[in-house]
Amino acid sequence: MPRILIIEDDLQQSSMLSDYLSSEHMQITTCALGSDGLALLQKEHIDALILDVGLPDMDGFEVCRQVRTFSQLPILMLTARGDEMDRIIGLEIGADDYLPKPFNPRELLARLRAILRRAQHNTPDTILRFGRLEINEAAHTALIDGENINLTGYQFDLLSVLVKHAGRVMSRDQLMDELKGHDLEAFDRSIDVHISRIRSQIEDDPKKPRRILTIRGTGYLFARQQD
Ligand code: CA
């Protein structure tokens, strides 16, 4: 059971998170002050840290900076809003990931699992994340909410190509060109079949896809943001 420390002064938020993560088989410790969290991290083994930026005694960035002087444990930072500056500062001082408040607990769980996994395998960061979807190119896995989804090798490669060109329309010809190694898939039509299979795995509603969009008469587009 991974042991997680939450440093967060909003007690309602921290008890909600603590209940939720406990129900997902994690062992949770909470602190409301940065200084208490730092003291605890120095004497006990913790697998990952969830760190709020706004704390009463010192800000979360300072806590993160100090943690990095003695530990490489994975750190997920929480901030009040999606401020790009916060994100950049957080990542520059060594946080592993960042989540703006308010957040979906399931998304937090998925990210927490991802940073725990990365720390465990100590693999370089080859993970691409789009909302609930996470793609690990090195491991050849695609996950939704941290759970593996079922794709064939061809489908995984097709999804990777779309993701690599996220925000750009890809024609069927371009897609097939990128997937040339797979010569079993000779016909135009098969792309569509595989796309619907991928959609059935990654879309909330595969009939109304918001992630992989069909651009009529042209091809497909992987949307970075779902609107
Ligand atoms: Ca706070």
Which structural traits does this protein have?
four-stranded antiparallel sheet, 227 residues, alpha/beta, Rossmann fold, binds calcium ion, Arc Repressor Mutant, subunit A
Describe this structure in words.
The chain is of the alpha/beta class and 227 residues long. The chain has two domains: 118 residues, 3-Layer(aba) Sandwich (Rossmann fold); 96 residues, Winged helix-like DNA-binding domain superfamily/Winged helix DNA-binding domain (Arc Repressor Mutant, subunit A). Helix 3 links the parallel strand 3 and strand 4. The longest helix is centred in the middle third of the chain and has 17 residues. It starts with a strand and ends in a 5-residue tail after the last strand. Calcium ion binds next to loops.
Write the layout of secondary structure elements.
Elements: E1 3-7, H1 11-23, E2 27-31, H2 34-43, E3 48-52, H3 60-67, E4 75-79, H4 84-92, E5 97-100, H5 105-121, E6 127-130, E7 133-136, E8 141-144, E9 147-148, H6 153-164, E10 169-171, H7 172-178, H8 188-202, E11 212-215, E12 219-222
Parallel strand pairs: 1-2, 1-3, 3-4, 4-5
Antiparallel strand pairs: 6-7, 7-8, 8-9, 10-12, 11-12
